[in-house]
Amino acid sequence: MLDVSLRHKFAGFTLDAHFTAPAGVTVLFGRSGSGKTTIVNAVAGLLMPQTGRIAAGDWVLLDTDRTIRLKPHKRRIGYVFQEARLFPHLTVRQNLAYGAWFAPKSAPRESMSRVVEMLGIGPLLDRRPGALSGGERQRVAIGRALLSAPRLILADEPLAALDEARKAEILPYFERLRDEVSVPILYVSHSASEVARLATTVVALDAGRVVAQGPAHAVLGDPSILPTGARDAGAVLTARVARHHDDGLTELDAGGLPLFLPRVRAAPEAQLRIRIAAHDVILSRTRPEGLSALNILPGTIQDIRAGDGPGTIVALDTAAGRVLARITQRSAAAMALEVGATVFAVVKTVSVASGDIGGGAKRQS
């Protein structure tokens, strides 16, 4: 459990953040300028805050009260940047070995063969970075960080520089890291889809302060938070693959409710995380009939949050989990929506993007 407490003033901005990062992937989530990168730079030792403490038990990286300030190279942190920052004159194998060269001899470490297999970079070992795609370079950068025997991995928006195809390529590897590697990961993102797929714990930031901390489904499903704005609002459901149908659909079991998605590459009984964007949900006061939409989830309204504009976020609890709907205030008034009312959430099968579907974490959120 990494405990982080930081306070630092810049011109026009004050960071005053306190949170804990347990095992798994802890995502620092918020809009640009909320303080995410400042925090990871302080953890890495690239920024010395005016006051603060960063520690996990007797592993103390920073304690300004005790004048403890470990130098960056003594913190045993693997840092994955937006750009891979590989050595262009070295092969992939040599870049990986460079990470292992920094690992303390007494430290437990991952084997080269396991890291290569986990990240799927075996065919790349004899290539140089210039011959790799952006996603391949990031996988190598992750492998180099792992082989340095870190006690913590920092990932500062590692997918931000990639196009959608490359993001889709690399996200499953981060899911494997979350589930198969014991090293905790502090991950920076302002993408709700990335958070929904990867996070074991979410730390939501706004204007340099922590506004919420908890499992992904709890933080993303709370309409009072929405650190990146109402347009990114959405809920996270956990479901089990029930069966694949011949017409190209996959049927999930979401808390006993059927949920149909375009064909998912997962075996029956596999656990999945699904993010359903609030703007893709329609509400009805009665069970609708004669619709093309296949997914109808009955639920009870738990919260209604009107925005500054014409929109409203409605949160309802269903057997599948918390669902958010973004509708107009006019519709909410016309339907006489209120907390405690029973409504039906309607979700089109094709509205759930493949990037919003990921493997379920072994460390349950």
Automatic annotation (TrEMBL):
Residues 290-356 form the Mop domain. InterPro entries: AAA+_ATPase, ABC_transporter-like_ATP-bd, ABC_transporter-like_CS, Mo/tungstate-bd_C_term_dom, ModC_ABC_ATP-bd, Molybdenum_import_ModC, Mop_domain, P-loop_NTPase. One of its GO terms (molecular function) is ABC-type transporter activity. GO terms for cellular component: membrane. Its EC number is 3.6.3.19. Keywords: ATP-binding, Cell inner membrane, Cell membrane, Hydrolase, Membrane, Molybdenum, Nucleotide-binding, Translocase, Transport. SUPFAM superfamilies: MOP-like, P-loop containing nucleoside triphosphate hydrolases. Residues 1-232 form the ABC transporter domain. Gene3D superfamilies: 2.40.50.100, P-loop containing nucleotide triphosphate hydrolases. This is Maltose/maltodextrin import ATP-binding protein MalK.
